[in-house]
Design goal:
With 89 residues, this protein is mainly alpha-helical. The chain is built from three helices and no strands. It has helices spanning 2-25, 35-54, 64-85.
Amino acid sequence: MYTLLTFLTTLIEIYSYALIVYILMSWFPNARGTKIGQLLAAICEPYLEPFRRIIPPLGMIDVSPIAALIVLNFATRGLHALFSMLHLV
């Protein structure tokens, strides 16, 4: 079962990196219009959308991706707690 935990946490980590890259692409003009930008938008926007509806931007700064990354961190911690609670690790 340890391999399942490792697999799930690795997936969350890869998705977190994809979010960070997608967020950083907003700093460069036309970066989101590239093929990679469109791919990351298709992957990241459905996850970011609920956070953007709940958390309004602060002026020109969108803080919803920070909340999204924190939730992913909590999910990883929750998986570790669940697996240790069930004595699967």
